[in-house]
Amino acid sequence: MAWGTRLGDAEIIEKSLIEFQATKGFRDPYPEGRRSKGRGREVESSATTGASVSASVDMIDQFEEMNRRLQDIRDLMYEHLQVKNEVANFLKVKQMDIDLEILKKPIDIDPRMWAVAKKREMTLMKDTNFRTKIEGVDGSLSSHFLVFTFLFLSFQPTVFLEMHSSYSLIIFLFSLHLLGDHGGARITLPENVSVPAVIAFGDSVVDQGANNNLKTLIKANFPPYGQDFTAGPTGRFTNNNTPADIIVSELGIKDVLPAYLDPSLDDKELPTGVSFASGGSGYDPQTPKIVSVLSFEEQLEQFKEYIVKLKGIVGEERTQFILANSLFLVVAGSDDLANTYFTIGIRRLQYDIPSYADLMVSSASNFIQNIYKLGARRIGVFGTPPIGCLPSQRTLGGGGLRLCAEEYNQAAQIYNSKLQPEIEYLNSTLAQSRIVYVDIYNPLLEVIKNPFQYGLEVVDRGCCGTGNIEVSILCNRLLPTCPDDSKYLFWDSYHPTDKGYTILINSVLGKYINDFY
After folding, report:
1. What is the sign, positive or negative, of the torsion defined by CA atoms of 28, 34, 35, 41?
2. CA distances from 147 to 116, 120, 125, 272, 494 (A)
3. 44 in helix, strand or coil?
4. Pair 241, 230: CB distance under 8 Å
5. Are the beta carbons of 464 and 143 closer than 8 angstroms?
6. Tell me: the pLDDT tens digits for 474-512?
7. Is the pTM of this model over 0.85?
8. Which positions are catalytic?
9. N or C: more exposed end of the chain, with fewer CB within 10 A?
10. Residue 489 · residue 458 · CB < 8 Å
11. Closest CA to 306 of 270, 330, 279
């Protein structure tokens, strides 16, 4: 807005004009007595019309001159601001250089931690999406700095915060946001403890491809499954890593856990663990029969074969050490309740929910005792999740609004309430064992109730197709997937995304890892 056009500013402008004229030697076109105190408007005078016009012209000329000089001042101020910003940016870059020099200094850490951090770095830098995200921030990223960040996020966050520069704090917070998963946990093993292998049994949650060559419809070795996985579709029932992959990677053992039945499995993989799990399996012997997958009994027989092979590779003594110190995962129960009991319903004619839960717990207990007899000592037994909130179960049992099916959730709670004391009993009676009940029900329900706290937006349907019912062969290459699976808790209508699994596993591992050792 031009000077003098706002009536409310007229008196201020008039005063400024007088001061400006006095400073620059301009004459006053308004002699004393001819200046109004109203709003800067001209006052009628006895001067002739010609004098009045001349005075107005002079005033306009002086206003134009003042505006030119004010513009010069604005230009100088703008140049000053540019210089100020350049100086600030220079100082910011210098501070970054100082911080990076600090990061390059040797630090006193356990060599095992450094090895874990390097393994994580190598895994992530193989990921094109992650590397693109990193390089998009600064063009490049020091490998040493990336390892350093992992070390402190994983093991020593308080030390990192003791760096007394604001930019160090910015680096820490940025790294936490970019590299973190909002689950808030990393595995820190007790002192002098190492985990040689991870060995998994169970259902599709930790099936790494066992069903690929079985005559069953319960498969996931085709797109869009594995669309974010380095090797593509491998039989994992998600878009990327399963909980077994996440755990074995977090422990620094290897990047992913292979399936025991993988035809390309190298014998070198056996000492660091495999998965015997089969999608669709369960504790109830009827559950795997219905869908023609591997029962727990068959998984146990494969485990016996594995032990024989392991002895041939590393010898008897090392085999016993591996079995006694490895982390065993037993993940099942969801298919028993969701499919065998509720959806298909063949067991509802024989059992009510409490008695069916007893059958499941009895079978789980027998299996745990069997692998204990074969050498397993550190066994994590996962409870069932709130199955009524899985997208497919919302569709089947949640009514028109697809709410969580409360009857299904209550059944899961009844089973969990019976499984937990049985696990505690086994832990107290089986010598030298560390058998741990892992609650997954409450952590998953917490994410479902508060998705935004975990960086998620969609929790009532999967990313594949409509997300309401598609799972296994119903989730196939002919269906579209969501544009951003990192915003979804579920990949298909039954299994979480890699993002969902990461949140859950990091939350429970931080809670339970010390219970195994």
Report:
1. negative
2. 9, 8, 11, 23, 35
3. coil
4. no
5. no
6. 999 999 999 999 999 999 999 999 999 999 999 998 899
7. no
8. 204, 492, 495
9. N
10. yes
11. 270
